[in-house]
Amino acid sequence: MRIDALDDRNALVVSGTTFLPRHIAIGAIWTLRSSLPFSAFSGTFDIDGTQQYVPGTSRNQGNRDLGIAAVNSFRAGLGLSPIAPSQIQSSRYNDFDLRVAKSIFIRNEMQIEVVGQAFNLFGSTNLLEPYVNSNAQSPAFGQISNASNAQEGELAVRFVF
Predict the structure, then answer these.
(1) pLDDT in tens, 41-60
(2) Which of 34, 70, 79, 142 could be a cystine partner for 88, CB 3.0 to 4.6 Å?
(3) pTM for the model
(4) Parent domain of 150
């Protein structure tokens, strides 16, 4: 994959672990990312079956200012109403995961580890960019039809020997 095939404008991942008394470990990962771009397609195809971009746009411009203006110009030519920038949903990502583990030593190098984990602890709505409607002729242009899980948790016991 080419490096320029990815268009992650802003991303931040912060993680850390601390060890407390009584063999307790607490770790966290916080991932933040700005909205990913998507391409605006005209709803027509080349002779070889390739989707055509909306005229005046290229790859990854569907939710950028230039792309929205081109989409609305294209839609006007078809007698369709314009798409408001506020209608285009964001695929920004905000996920905070927490892990707490307690080790119980049995003998020598044998131990039991009790683990509790929480994923997306803050319950952020994280819409998934691959499921964006990119057909400029659709009234649902810019809408995202799928999201990651709101919150999850798990408990586990691990035997180490």
Answers:
(1) 998 888 888 889 999 998 88
(2) 142
(3) 0.78
(4) 3-160
